[in-house]
Amino acid sequence: MKFKEGPLTAVLSTIGRKTGKEHSVELRAVFYNNRFYFSRRNPNSDWLKNAVANALVKVKVNETSLPGHALLVRDEELARSISHMKYSDGRAEDSRIVLEVIPDELSY
Fold this sequence. Notes:
By secondary structure, the protein is an alpha+beta fold. About 20% of the residues lie in helices and about 45% in strands. It is built from two helices and six strands, in the order E-E-E-H-E-E-H-E. It has helices spanning about 45-55, 75-85, and strands at about 5-15, 20-30, 35-40, 55-60, 65-70, 95-105. It has a six-stranded antiparallel β-barrel with strand order 1-2-3-6-5-4. It is globular and about 35 Å long. The mean pLDDT is about 90.
């Protein structure tokens, strides 16, 4: 993968936990250590609930689409680092729920 580390815009596609249909949403994300990170201040989003219910997701950046596996970040230090990479203002200090997506080409 040839992505610059730091914030970027990506499309996250998840499988609906109720419908079973693919849902896609454009989000601000962070690419770091060959992984994609998406975050929220609260758990009240369908994309997050869907990714937790079914870890098989896709991330699209520009014209590159990568299947991967999603999991919640439990490491608070990593979650803070992701927030600081994503935001350069006071939002960087907000507590966030962070979803990590490991592209399948890196999953062994």
